[in-house]
Amino acid sequence: MSDFSDARLSMVATQLRRRGLQDERVLSAMEKVPRHLFIPEQLRRLAYDDEALPVGNAQTISQPFIVGYMLEQLDIAAEHRVLEIGTGTGYQAAILAELAREVFTIERLLDLYEIARNTLSELGYTNIDVIFGDGTTGLPDRAPFDRIIVAAAAPQMPPALFEQLAEGGRMVLPVGAPDMQ
């Protein structure tokens, strides 16, 4: 079975760099993390196309450009503690783990939580805490976070998450109705 390394390098060169992403740390992390392992086996041939793909439970893994763009906007430093809302299968959490000291990620769907936890463990990530639960309230007992990223659209910035940002922190999330973010 292919390790998809050529496809992964091509994804970064053609979909991310050529479309203006410049953060070398984000680009390097996306070159390293095997997106195909976070996608159902029958769709792995599409893993490095620039499109969202279904992962079960009526959920998708975001297209690579959107992941890279949001992470570039997050401006993560190596010493940061990051909170991710919406783990999905764990792809973005793996990239976050390449960029930050510590990652806390919350998934509300049990099947996806288990897939993410297992895949991230198999890949050897030790700086990610995968949590099953409702991410809308964040993790107040583990706050503050230097960075917070939300994978799903919210009608407005969630006040509970804003309160968990460290002084000078940054949050990136799609805001608005799902068709107008």
Low-confidence stretches: none
State the share of residues found in helices, binned by percent: 25-40%
Oligomer: single chain
Give the termini distance in whole angstroms.
Answer: 38 Å
Which of globular, elongated, flat, extended, rod-shaped describes the shape?
globular
- Count of DSSP strands: 7
Your description of this structure?
This protein is of the alpha/beta class. Helix content is 33%, strand content 20%. It has 6 helices and 7 strands, in the order H-H-E-E-H-E-H-E-H-E-E-H-E. The protein has helices at residues 5-17, 24-32, 64-74, 91-99, 110-122, 159-162; strands spanning 53-56, 59-61, 81-85, 102-107, 128-132, 145-150, 165-172. It has a 5-stranded parallel β-sheet, with helices on one face. Strands 1-2 form a two-stranded antiparallel ribbon. Helix 1 (5-17) packs antiparallel against helix 2 and helix 2 (24-32) crosses helix 4 (91-99). The N and C termini lie far apart (38 Å). The model has no long low-confidence stretch (mean pLDDT 94).
